[in-house]
C-alpha cells in the first residue's frame, strides 16, 4: 500500500527573523564616565539529536500493540508512485507532501501499515527523526499551511480513474506536541465516499504521523494516543 501521508513529508520553510525596534534610553550617561551595557549572550540552540532507524523502529507500534483483528500490510510501496495531483498551484505543497514517502530533512524514517481486512481500515504509523524539536514544529506548521491553502486534490487509482477529494482541517487528537490533523473525502469519481484522516504531532525531536484510510471515523484518536505513549517511552522524550 502506498504511504499516503508524507510526514514524512514537508518543504523546508524559509523563516524571516523580525528585528525589534531600537531601544532608546531615557537619559544618556555622563560623557566623563561612559557606561557600557554588555550585550546579552544568546542561549545556545539545543544540539541536534541523532536517531538510528533501529531506534525509531523500536518506538513504532507493532502488531501486538493493536487490537485483535488487524494484520500487518507488507505490500511494497512504489517510490515513484504519485497518485495525487491538483489543478491549482495553491495545492502544490500539499500534493508534494501526499506523494512523498519521507520528509525532506528527515535524518531517519520508519513506517508500518496495518489493515483490518480487505475493506479496511488501513492504519499507517510513521516516525521521522528531524534532529530538533524546532525542526519538528517547522514541519508541522508547513503541513498546516499547505492544508489551509488547498480545498481539493485529485487521487488517481490504477484502473479506476480519478477521484476528486475534499481537503479540510479537523480537530486533532490531543496527544504529542502541537498536533495537527486533516481529512480527505472523495466527493466525485470511482472512490466517492472514501475517507483518509491523518494527524502529525511532535514527540521531542521526532515527528509522529498516523493515517487512517477507509476507517469508521473513530480510529484516529486511540491510534494516535497509543503511538505517542510508546514513542515517548522508547525514545525517552519529555
TrEMBL record:
Entry keyword set: Signal
Cleaved signal peptide residues: 1-19
Region feature (Disordered): 21-52, 68-87
PROSITE patterns reported in the protein's UniProt record: PROKAR_LIPOPROTEIN (PS51257)
Keyword rRNA-binding among UniProt keywords: no
Low complexity bias spans: 27-52
The keyword Signal appears for this protein: yes
Entry protein name: Sensor domain-containing protein
